[in-house]
Design brief:
Blueprint: E1 3-8, H1 13-24, E2 28-34, E3 48-51, H2 55-67, E4 71-74, H3 81-91, E5 98-101, H4 107-119, E6 125-133, H5 142-154, E7 173-175, E8 178-185, E9 190-198, E10 201-209, H6 216-226, E11 231-234
Helix pairs in contact: 4-5
């Protein structure tokens, strides 16, 4: 039995990739492709909706799908911890559907974030520099926000990081006390550097996406997980075994 999928934001680069993956997978059927002009009702009849729209649109897409009993895979940036908490309160106790929110579908990116979370307890000076293609309209990226939040959780007993001169605009936007600097440039797909400063040393954890094909394995993994997901799941790390222990 195949799972019926509707892709919302199907004309974008990620939407086209998701659509192709769904069409090629024998256990999925692409039943709807919605662009910015489409009515959300066109997703009705799908078992799973994939939201790869824009930050200002995504919440409405998810709320519509949930209201109509459709599980959702969210690949759109902009889902802050506050917005996720609000979503959790709306579907709490609903055992019929799930929402899976994936800030980054790259396995390598997930591993880099996991390594950064491990390192966060050992350094008091931490900053993130994230770079994306010039057409990405939101900043900081969802991956950077997720990385900062996880590092902040890991440091809960240690307190905030050292981030001097936060009154200066060039010092970046703070998330969980960690400054994030966003670059939007031509010639780049995506890159994130997490820089740790210590006594007499600097550790930099870098991940760079060279081609959209790096997302394919993660997209398929997340699609299959969404079929049986219940409640809200955040991060590809929740779907793979990283062999980690401690705060998540």
């Amino acid at each position: 039995m195949t799972t019926k999928v509707a892709v919302v934001g199907a004309t974008g680069r990620l939407g086209q990739l998701v659509s192709r993956i769904v069409q090629e997978a024998p256990d999925f059927e692409l039943v709807a492709q919605l662009d910015s002009q489409a009515e959300l009702a066109e997703m009705l009849g799908a078992d799973v909706a994939v939201d790869v729209t824009l930050p200002g649109v995504s919440q409405g897409v998810v709320e519509f799908a949930v209201a109509h009993g459709i599980s959702v895979l969210v690949g759109t940036s902009g889902w802050s911890s506050e917005r996720i908490a609000s979503l959790e309160s709306k579907i709490n106790g609903n055992l019929a559907l799930g929402v899976v929110i994936i800030p980054n579908f790259s396995i390598g990116s997930v591993l880099a974030t996991a390594f950064a979370t491990m390192a966060a307890r050992f350094f008091d000076s931490i900053e993130i520099v994230e770079t994306h293609h010039a057409s990405k309209i939101d900043s900081p990226s969802g991956t950077a926000v997720r990385t900062a939040e996880l590092m902040g959780n890991a440091r809960a007993e240690l307190g905030p990081v050292l981030a001097p001169h936060t009154d200066q605009r060039a010092r970046g936007q703070q998330v969980s006390s960690i400054p994030i600097h966003s670059l939007r440039m031509q010639g780049v797909v995506a890159r994130q550097d997490v820089v740790f400063g210590g006594n007499g040393e600097v550790l930099t954890l870098s991940h760079e996406t060279l081609a959209p094909s790096s997302y394919e394995a993660g997209i398929l993994l997340a699609l299959r997980a969404t079929r049986t997901a219940r409640g809200v799941t955040v991060g590809l790390d929740k779907l793979i075994d990283l062999g980690q222990r401690g705060p998540q």
